Amino acid sequence: MSRIVVTGGAGRLGRSLVAGLAERGHEVVSFDRAPAENLQVAHVSLDLTDAAATAHALTDAQADAVIHLAAIAVPFSAPEDVILRTNAALAMSVLGGAVQAGIPKIVAASSPTVIGYGAPTGWTPDRLPLDEVSPTLPWNAYALSKLLIEQSIAMLQRQTGDAVRFAAFRPCYVIAPEEWGGAPTQQGHTVRERLDDPALSAPALFNYVDARDVATFADTLLAALGDIPSGEVFFVGADDALAREPLADLLPRFHPGTAAAAAELTGTTPAFSNAKARALLGWTPAHDWRTELAAADDRSDVHA
Ligand SMILES: NC(=O)c1ccc[n+]([C@@H]2O[C@H](COP(=O)([O-])OP(=O)(O)OC[C@H]3O[C@@H](n4cnc5c(N)ncnc54)[C@H](O)[C@@H]3O)[C@@H](O)[C@H]2O)c1
User: Fold this and answer.
1) What is the CATH number of the domain that holds 92?
2) What's the domain count of the chain?
3) Best exposed site among 66, 224, 248, 267 by fewest CB in 10 Å?
4) Ligand 1 atom 43 nearest Cα
5) Which residue's CA lies nearest to atom 26 of ligand 1?
6) How close is the Cα of 14 to the center of ligand 1, in Å?
């Protein structure tokens, strides 16, 4: 059992991560400026852009690990300068504060958007599926702020060496458990709407991951952090695409310039590979949309 601080613990991913880590026997403390509604773990309310208060709270927490999620989490949901300033300040304050507090394991959420798909001037991948060595070409402040988080980790690693173990992960479009049953997803529509209208899921290249799988990923990563190279970056995605047609057909329709590379994406193959997490950590996602939607249908039949 570890004592783990999760920043952004009151958020969409944070709530599932906190619950999943607590279920696995960890003592979890949520740090968020939002109130902790229905969180079953300890919660500290603070503005994490306040570096001094954050370092103080992290020192008080006496944690074995911190997982940094707090952010403006949606591209263009605030002015570009606000997104960049806020997410950069949060990264410095939380990751730097964790080093200052002597926390030995530090993990942060980045985003697949660092890859730069959807750029108004075009995007032509050399190959698909994308993986952790694919080039990063952010084209908006959110994506840039996420690359900055990855770079902040690399910077701190140069300061601490192996005394502190770091990692970053890029979760695909997170689906919380209740969203399989019809609750709105991050962009406001339901999972079924995303499947029925591919234009809704195309901006994210049809990627997704069940929030519970992010929790098992985080648990596995923290356990392995002493045994793998420090500072690794991982995509965390489902084994398949959130689409009813193969991406070889769908992607070029919405992303001109992808036809040649997308030819590899036959069957249910997703645009993002999770092979690195599988190989280095032995992690595999346990949830997929076909099974989850069928289970949600069964539940609604029972209640009908
Ligand atoms: N949800 C996704 O599909 C997805 C995909 C890729 C990456 N991510 C990343 O995962 C993380 C979590 O995403 P989410 O969907 O749960 O977002 P969310 O908006 O639901 O949660 C973010 C949380 O951060 C908190 N926060 C923001 N600014 C803060 C501050 N100054 N002080 C304290 N708390 C603050 C908010 O109150 C909120 O609870 C983010 O870093 C996001 O960029 C999410």
Assistant:
1) 3.40.50.720
2) 1
3) 267
4) 73
5) 70
6) 7
